[in-house]
């Protein structure tokens, strides 16, 4: 895709494509729901076409949003939730700060120390995150091993403290619900590829919804729409 012309050669207007991607990534709708909603507007768009748009532009939304994310704080809450892919459970690692802001996410096939380490390294690489003062986790034994390895490699400061107290992670468990509602509406995923790309759209839209991007507040729906249009170069 040409970054300067992300909608070149598409048969539908950029505004229609972004509308469908935004709605699918924001609300618990199926592709067939969106197909019917487009018909109400006098547009015939097959649900499979909308699916292709989400798979194509969901990751692009994630990439284009990240440079605008506000800095997060140094109190991390890390947890994983379950996502069904081809009738098998996969693991979506997620982290937020103590204000509820999303730090990052990672879909993996395994729930072990190497997966936890890989996820934490991903979080640390973000420009908008800072080294954690404390990392709150549940009793999953993978986290102490992952953090020990990161500190041994000097990728995580020695001053970063691990706190394995389950009730302290209630905030992130509540935060999982938004993503779970969206995946439930889609009836799971047919492949790891589609799950990974779709979840990027879900999570980036969730960050925008929370007011995590610069210049757009949490409940400023019109501002959020304008932000998405602007990062894709679409006139309001």
TrEMBL record:
The keyword DNA-binding applies. GO terms for biological process: DNA integration; DNA recombination; transposition. Residues 63-226 form the Integrase catalytic domain. Signal peptide: none annotated. One of its GO terms (molecular function) is DNA binding. Transmembrane segments: none annotated. Keywords: DNA recombination, DNA-binding, Transposition. This is Integrase catalytic domain-containing protein. It comes from Acaryochloris thomasi RCC1774. The lineage of its organism: Bacteria, Bacillati, Cyanobacteriota, Cyanophyceae, Acaryochloridales.
């Amino acid at each position: 895709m040409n970054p300067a012309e992300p909608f070149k050669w598409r048969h539908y207007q950029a505004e229609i494509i972004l509308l469908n991607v935004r709605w699918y990534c924001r609300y618990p709708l199926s592709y067939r729901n969106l197909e019917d909603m487009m018909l109400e507007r006098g547009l015939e768009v097959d649900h499979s076409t909308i699916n292709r748009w989400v798979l194509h532009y969901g990751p692009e939304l994630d990439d284009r949003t990240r440079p605008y994310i506000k800095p997060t704080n140094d109190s991390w809450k890390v947890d994983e939730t379950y996502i069904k892919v081809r009738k098998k459970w996969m693991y979506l690692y997620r982290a937020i700060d103590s204000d509820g802001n999303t730090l990052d996410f990672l879909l993996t096939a395994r729930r072990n120390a190497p997966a936890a380490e890989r996820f934490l390294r991903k979080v640390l690489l973000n420009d908008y995150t800072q080294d954690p003062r404390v990392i709150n986790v549940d009793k999953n034994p993978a986290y102490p091993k992952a953090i020990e390895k990161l500190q041994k490699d000097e990728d995580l400061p020695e001053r970063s403290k691990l706190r394995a107290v389950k009730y302290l992670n209630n905030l992130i468990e509540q935060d999982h619900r938004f993503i779970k509602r969206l995946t439930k509406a889609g009836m799971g995923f047919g492949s790891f590829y589609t799950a990974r790309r779709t979840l990027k759209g879900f999570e980036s839209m969730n960050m925008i919804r929370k007011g995590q991007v610069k210049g757009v507040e949490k409940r400023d729906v019109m501002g959020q729409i304008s932000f998405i249009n602007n990062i894709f170069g679409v006139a309001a």
